Model the fold of this input.
Amino acid sequence: MKTPLLIGAACLLALLSTIGASLPYPILPPLFAAGVSNGLNQFLGLPPKLLFGLALTINPLGLLIGSALLGPMSDRYGRRPVLLITAVGAAIGHAATACALLLESYPLFIVARFITGLLEGNGSVARAMLADRLDGDLRRKALSWLNGAFYMGWLAGPLLAGMTLVWGITVPFWIAVAALLLVALLVAAVLPVEAPSLATTSWWQVARDRHSLNLLREPDLRNLFIVTLAYTCGVTAFYEFYPLWLVEVPGFGARGIAWTTAAMCAVMTTTTMFAGRPFKGEPLLRARRFALITASLIGLLAASNAWVGIAAIILYGIPHSIYNAIVPNWCAERFGAHGQGAVMGLISTTFCLANIIMALVGAVLTLIDTRLILVLGAMLTAWSAWRMQTWHASMARDDRDKLEGALQ
Done:
């Protein structure tokens, strides 16, 4: 197997999973908020904004469930079959979404977006695939590049939609269908056929008994969940609501938001090219330092004027990218015995859960002041950094006790 093709396939899967999640962002608002009646915004006579909110939430909900289930299922049934099935299934989901838009069928749209999100939760499988087959510095670099692909998807999705909408509202989704089918072919070509599974349990039993949240029974993995949830709640508060801050403070429109986002994503992607380099010292303590810098930039955004805030948004990409280059590789090395798919699934699940939590909390706080959700995000990220310090000290004591016990 050629390593560059393996890494390329994983990064393409990551890119397309976040493109799929972000693709509707510029498409849906005009359908629900332009004041023109259609089958999508008149479903059951419910308020269009309520229908719009559900349409935005349903895909991350699918991602949340898929991230928890698909990683452990790939531990049991193999990375290759799970990646192939989910890539083709997500392509079908995008095709169903396009049909729902043509038919103006809100129920079909919701079902299609949920199933697409469920299957695009295969990012944890891509992480596990790299963690399985690579090691050392190459694994660290590959996981960093994978994170860069996830970041680029959040930029590429809205840009793809914006550039292709002139040819029709469904065109972006058909492009996603074609791209996912090509990735499925690449996965089929790059990953070797795995030995047939000897499992006799049904897929439903595997999903029920081996999902990633079962790892929370382990104290260290429970600490990982708590730290990661606090950190990702902070960063999701940032990226979900900095566009609103850009509207309210510097008075930006869609173009200004797009250029600021493009600058931030460019910084993130550039940083990931260097973030996977070897370093000296304890990984968790290094991640803690960059979590503190991330918290400082989110807090600066909440407290600053227009131009300082824009600089904070763009610079945010540096510490966040380095943090995400450190933590997955450290988790792969320390917790890999629990199954790389399950461990990476826990990380992905936590991210999706943070998206949903902060969207709900932010919907309330922004009614008072947008800066409140940013302050809360900064506080949660800073708290996660403090928790990393105490967790590291606890693990160091446990490791010393185990070593002393082994020597006696």
